[in-house]
Amino acid sequence: xxxxxxxxxxxxxxxxxxxxxxxxxxxxxxxxxxxxxxxxxxxxxxxxxxxxxxxxxxxxxxxxxxxxxxxxxxxxxxxxxxxxxxxxxxxxxxxxxxxxxxxxxxxxxxxxxxxxxxxxxxxxxxxxxxxxxxxxxxxxxxxxxxxxxxxxxxxxxxxxxxxxxxxxxxxxxxxxxxxxxxxxxxxxxxxxxxxxxxxxxxxxxxxxxxxxxxxxxxxxxxxxxxxxxxxxxxxxxxxxxxxxxxxxxxxxxxxxxxxxxxxxxxxxxxxxxxxxxxxxxxxxxxxxxxxxxxxxxxxxxxxxxxxxxxxxxxxxxxxxxxxxxxxxxxxxxxxxxxxxxxxxxxxxxxxxxxxxxxxxxxxxxxxxxxxxxxxxxxxxxxxxxxxxxxxxxxxxxxxxxxxxxxxxxxxxxxxxxxxxxxxxxxxxxxxxxxxxxxxxxxxxxxxxxxxxxxxxxxxxxxxxxxxxxxxxxxxxxxxxxxxxxxxxxxxxxxxxxxxxxxxxxxxxxxxxxxxxxxxxxxxxxxxxxxxxxxxxxxxxxxxxxxxxxxxxxxxxxxxxxxxxxxxxxxxxxxxxxxxxxxxxxxxxxxxxxxxxxxxxxxxxxxxxxxxxxxxxxxxxxxxxxxxxxxxxxxxxxxxxxxxxxxxxxxxxxxxxxxxxxxxxxxxxxxxxxxxxxxxxxxxxxxxxxxxxxxxxxxxxxxxxxxxxxxxxxxxxxxxxxxxxxxxxxxxxxxxxxxxxxxxxxxxxxxxxxxxxxxxxxxxxxxxxxxxxxxxxxxxxxxxxxxxxxxxxxxxxxxxxxxxxxxxxxxxxxxxxxxxxxxxxxxxxxxxxxxxxxxxxxxxxxxxxxxxxxxxxxxxxxxxxxxxxxxxxxxxxxxxxxxxxxxxxxxxxxxxxxxxxxxxxxxxxxxxxxxxxxxxxxxxxxxxx
Length: 928
Fold this sequence. Notes:
Blueprint: H1 3-13, H2 30-37, H3 46-56, H4 69-74, H5 80-94, H6 98-127, E1 136-141, E2 144-149, E3 158-162, E4 170-182, H7 184-187, E5 193-194, E6 212-213, E7 218-230, H8 236-243, H9 252-283, H10 286-300, H11 305-322, E8 325-327, H12 331-335, E9 341-344, H13 346-350, E10 356-362, E11 368-369, H14 375-378, H15 384-398, E12 403-406, E13 412-415, H16 418-430, H17 435-439, E14 442-446, E15 454-460, E16 466-472, H18 474-479, E17 481-485, E18 491-493, H19 496-507, E19 512-521, E20 536-545, H20 552-561, E21 565-569, H21 574-584, E22 593-594, H22 595-598, H23 603-612, E23 615-617, H24 621-633, E24 638-642, H25 648-653, E25 656-660, H26 666-671, E26 674-676, H27 681-721, H28 730-748, H29 772-798, H30 803-824, H31 841-859, H32 861-867, H33 874-885, H34 887-903, H35 915-927
Parallel strand pairs: 9-21, 9-24, 17-20, 21-23, 22-23, 24-25, 25-26
Antiparallel strand pairs: 1-2, 1-3, 3-7, 4-5, 4-6, 4-7, 8-26, 10-11, 10-20, 12-13, 14-15, 15-16, 16-19, 17-18, 19-20
Helix pairs in contact: 1-3, 5-6, 5-10, 6-11, 6-28, 9-10, 9-27, 10-27, 10-28, 11-27, 15-16, 20-27, 20-35, 23-24, 27-28, 27-29, 27-30, 28-30, 28-31, 29-30, 29-34, 30-31, 30-33, 30-34
């Protein structure tokens, strides 16, 4: 049952007719809203507010319950490999082989500790980013203004708003004085929404409901009053917040690992059963046969694989933190390397979230780029054209409500309307306006109102001169003008056709265009007579845009080179979105998909449209979610970026949700897998690269583990059914798998990237933990190692060597095989001598330490006695070393053969042909 239904039932039980869930508040007149809410301009009384609080509950969002620590720890024991080892450990206890059982459970316990610690760290990292949204608010109750905790608000409360306030609940505005609200978190619009009290159409989109103020948004200027119409989970923010608590499916890596573990477990169990039955029948010793089967299971089971995965991904978490990315979910580290599509929000991610004036025109002249223009020098220049440009910038800054405040760095911070801030910033940075200009007293002003389409200010200079400044919609400002500046800065009669041509040229680039005009008045003129401006001189146009972030275009080109497509998904206007898309080098920006189009589309048509465009504009949260699901239905691994509540459902549904840490909302961060602390798209490309590095490291570790496990399984299996003495004891296999191999396979997880990770396409969704190349190499190397171990063991037994010595030689040969396989496993394609051993110092040191530990164990009598080992002579070590080197003939030889064939155009990788050519062609098109 939903919270709304519960509240309605509570309301009915209280005898109050307060079913508000189906009410379209934005379409009602103010009087109807007051009547429906049983409210007035004196606010609610204490008794009524308490009664409604009991009915509707606290004004707070539902929070996800933190996973208990004990449950997080127990989850580390899940998985087929762990289950098989646990069963083996339990049965070994019943057989009273306590040392073997203790070793098995020690491995499992250490794996659980590593996984638990890393997941706990990831949770704590993101907790540090969350803050309370609105702790208190001002309301009118019983005719008095009171400040109360925001969670005590109820429907019908009259809330007071002013600049800087965060809206505490969904409000129907009943008073709005120059009220502007930043609703980017809900709508994605970079420009503040201008508010009034007039009702709108019942079907109006969220961003067009100008008489509403929504919970979580911020008042940027003006003031107003609003009646609470929804609280808690019934607000727009709350309804979206509820969607983010849906459980997320497995990541691609989790599915691959589960499939691999299950396959290994089934194969090993079947072979173990065969060995047990065969040994029991041939030798008539069921206990001995079972120990042989346990030995095979322990030898073949890559129990260190979960540890390697956890360590490698935890290392990725640490590396990504250096690139300003906090990872909440460990598997997301690798999933980033698998993505094929990035659905990115525009504002604040691809762009700077700072409206900036980019072009001027004088009158109806050609647009002039602002970049590189010294308007400070222009203000005192004898050049009429440059002086005209300075006058244009000054006029825009002097009819302006932007607020300037010094910051700690000695600079200036701006607040207010995005357009006003852009024009003020331009005038300040270029020196077109002086402190004296800004201090000139305002004798009359008209703030911007949607119905007026302009703002006006009259200022008096120190010499007593009055100057009237007007800015607004170009058509409205032209209607007030009689003359204009020509491109040379001379005053000429107004040419509306020329101005319209300039207006259209700037608008076609996605710029927000503002017209600016002025008129010098006589010092004795009555300012009241100029309330309706006329006979102005049209100075020109200012075109502004939220510009792309530095480096984003290059990052998108890198994504293209890596086979990743970037799609812009935004609530902004299609023309603006397309203009930004072209600047960023996105493909197919001419036919932007819009939310209104999607209403009429089937899923099949939507998927087809998404293949034709890289821009989705004017989309709602539901539209974003549908786009993500459509791309996933096409087989894509989708990453989504966002910062607002409107992005949360898509963030949750995506394979990887990437939230903004600075500008992002708590709801967005709650829904995400990764949080960017610098809100920069460029960081995503670095995260993708690290994801691919991590998967390559995991793949190398898995190849190392499985190849040595395959060798051990073949050797032990053949040994048991050959009626020979037991090749390896279970404890010896645990010794190899954990003490020696365990150090090396973890060290392989630290393998750094080669720097070319973004030059190849993502791996195929059907590709498993190992590629076909590695599976083939694994089979050959595993068979060769098993054969060498069995032959050497048989020769030593036939020569009369005691069993402990023969086992120790076989075990040492396996250790040396592992040493050389670990070095080869660093790269799937590069030869050992092409790799700098110091690039992974940990592996180099760990491999020699593993050899040292193994040698020390056989020469320390107490340890050797427990492990059933005996000391070897120098000649026996040399024999094992020479035979161990032979595995490189197969692993490195395979690399050389494939490289030789690749140079001759023969593809042995299994990747689709022509893909890289297509990628290179896309990059070339973007650069050109």
